[in-house]
């Protein structure tokens, strides 16, 4: 008889994020996720009090990994222009390199959900504020930096949607490098 691996809360949140990516918030359901993990609902209740607690943990993990950890990675570079270019390189990459984008797009469909709405608002605000800081540190006045951060973020959202729905249209290789250069040049042009 095979020994079953003891699941952690992180295993459950990873599976919840996978389910969310594939089927939206409604797909974050205990029984199907338990089946996917090859376990019972009892394992779930060891870590979470209910489905909403799992969804909340998954959302918080997505926020941490796909916003705060990326910002921390970028902040290791002292040059704001270099950070902006690195950010755009990450943001305009292939969707398979950024599973968090799939989660974000799935969350957009449930933007009014009481657990999703505050997380999406917080993530969007944090990202826009960070990009604004990059433009301001690069020498732009705050109002102009804010407008450009909005342009950069909406370009990212559009790119993420295109990369998910029509990945064959997303520039790759040298074309991707040139595309990122073009986007950064457009965003930083005086």
Can you tag this structure with a few keywords?
190 residues; single chain; Tetracycline Repressor, domain 2; 73% helix; DNA-binding; elongated; HTH_TetR; mainly alpha
What does this structure look like?
With 190 residues, this protein is mainly alpha-helical. 73% of the residues lie in helices and 0% in strands. It is built from nine helices and no strands. The protein is elongated and about 60 Å long. It starts with 8 loop residues before the first helix and ends with a helix.
What radius of gyration results from the CA coordinates? Answer: 19 Å
Helix content: over 70%
Measured by DSSP, the beta-strand proportion falls in under 5%
Give the SSE string. HHHHHHHHH
Nearest-integer average pLDDT: 91
Structural class: mainly alpha
User: Which of globular, elongated, flat, extended, rod-shaped describes the shape?
Assistant: elongated
The CATH architecture of the domain at 60-188 would be: Orthogonal Bundle
Low-confidence stretches: none
């Amino acid at each position: 008889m095979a020994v079953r691996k003891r699941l952690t809360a992180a295993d459950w949140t990873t599976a919840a994020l996978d389910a969310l990516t594939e089927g939206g918030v409604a797909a974050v359901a205990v029984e199907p996720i338990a089946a996917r993990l090859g376990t019972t609902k009892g394992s779930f209740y060891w870590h979470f009090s209910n489905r909403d607690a799992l969804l909340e943990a998954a959302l918080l993990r997505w926020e941490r990994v796909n916003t705060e950890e990326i910002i921390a990675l970028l902040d290791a570079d002292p040059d704001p222009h270099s950070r902006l270019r690195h950010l755009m390189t990450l943001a305009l990459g292939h969707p398979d390199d950024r599973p968090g984008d799939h989660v974000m797009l799935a969350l957009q469909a449930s933007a009014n959900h009481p657990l999703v709405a505050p997380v999406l608002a917080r993530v969007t605000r944090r990202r826009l504020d960070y990009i604004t800081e990059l433009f301001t540190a690069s020498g732009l006045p705050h109002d102009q930096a804010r407008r450009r951060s909005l342009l950069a973020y909406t370009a990212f959202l559009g790119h993420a949607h295109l990369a998910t729905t029509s990945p064959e249209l997303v520039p790759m290789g040298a074309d991707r490098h040139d595309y990122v250069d073009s986007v950064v040049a457009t965003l930083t042009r005086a």
